[in-house]
Specification:
Strand content: 15-25%
Shape: globular
CATH class: Alpha Beta
Helix content: 25-40%
Number of domains: 1
Oligomer: single chain
Structural class: alpha+beta
Order of helices and strands: HEHHEEEEEEEEHHEEHHH
CATH topology: Lambda Exonuclease, Chain A
Length: about 300
């Protein structure tokens, strides 16, 4: 009887898949704007930022720098964690779609192979559209596509997990009339999965997540966001509402405008400029795990 090692095979597949990651880093991702964090002098207590890695990601995407593949360590376990998070998004969208048909807005791609070119509904609308009952081909093979936003001034971009039309959601309070404020009844939804220890202590959205949502609201023009945090251990859930914070976003917007200018210009010597390092020592754990460490500390 044959003996096979499933984990070894799957780990090899995950490592190769991670090497071929085609995520576009030519723009600033909302999800990582305040994610790689280190305390900077002069910051308000509790506020963090570390944009040097963001700049390196843009430079790599434009091939201004190259990373030795041998220095990039891929953890198959982390890849499985990322996949669980992505699939949780699909599961929650399935829940929303079936709880209140027509409430979930997005872009919808017909999977019928009869189409020579992708047929996507809502692609010409900023917020997408509700799911059509049926495609023009007569089939109901419509798959959800996240709505993406971008902004040239800040170089921000990103895809939101879901958009809900609160008028069609059965469990709600205080939805304004369309003619009074058309932005008030759309809600940007972001799904997060979390380990049980962090989940238990969670009393509000994490700071980097708040920034991510604020950027989504800025890009979409909407005023209300909702976080759904799910405990990885038992699928219990915590919900948090986020209102658009115009004062905070003006500060973040100015940060992004400065960074956009920085990564798209060179200094008098023709060199690409970088923000200051987030850490003072190169043996810091975060630095040791960063794939740009050889460039950063050269």
């Amino acid at each position: 009887m044959p003996t096979i090692n499933l984990l070894k095979g799957v780990n090899g597949y995950l490592e190769e898949k991670a090497k071929k990651n085609d995520r576009d880093y030519t723009y600033f991702h909302a999800s990582s704007w305040d994610f790689c964090r280190a305390r900077d002098e002069g910051d308000t207590p509790g506020m963090y930022k570390h944009h040097r890695q963001v700049a390196y990601s843009v430079y790599e995407a434009h091939k201004y720098i190259q990373i030795d593949p041998k220095l990039v360590k891929i953890n198959p376990g982390l890849e499985r964690i990322f996949d669980n998070g992505h699939w949780a998004h699909d599961r929650w969208r399935h829940y929303l779609e079936n709880t209140a048909p027509g409430a979930l807005w997005g872009r919808w791609m017909c999977k019928n192979p009869i189409h020579k070119e992708p047929k996507v509904y809502g692609a010409d609308k900023k917020l997408g559209c509700p799911k059509p009952d049926v495609c023009e081909c007569g089939q109901n093979m419509l798959a959800y596509q996240e709505v993406g936003f971008s902004d040239k001034e800040t170089l921000w971009g990103g895809h939101v997990d879901a958009i809900i039309d609160a008028r069609r959601w059965p469990y709600k309070k205080g939805v304004a009339k369309e003619e009074k404020d058309p932005q008030s009844f759309f809600v940007v939804v972001d799904f997060k999965t979390m380990n049980p220890f962090s989940f238990k202590a969670l009393e509000e959205p994490k700071p980097e997540h708040k920034t991510q949502m604020q950027i989504y609201l800025y890009l979409s023009g909407l005023k209300l966001g909702k976080f759904v945090y799910e405990n990885k251990a038992d699928q219990t859930v915590k919900e948090f509402v986020v209102d658009f914070d115009e004062e905070l976003m003006e500060k973040k917007r100015q940060e992004a405008i400065f960074m956009n200018h920085l990564v798209n210009h060179t200094n008098s010597k023709g060199n690409h400029v970088l923000p200051k390092r987030g850490f003072e020592e190169k043996d810091n754990k975060t630095c040791l795990q960063c794939k740009f460490k050889e460039h950063c500390w050269a």
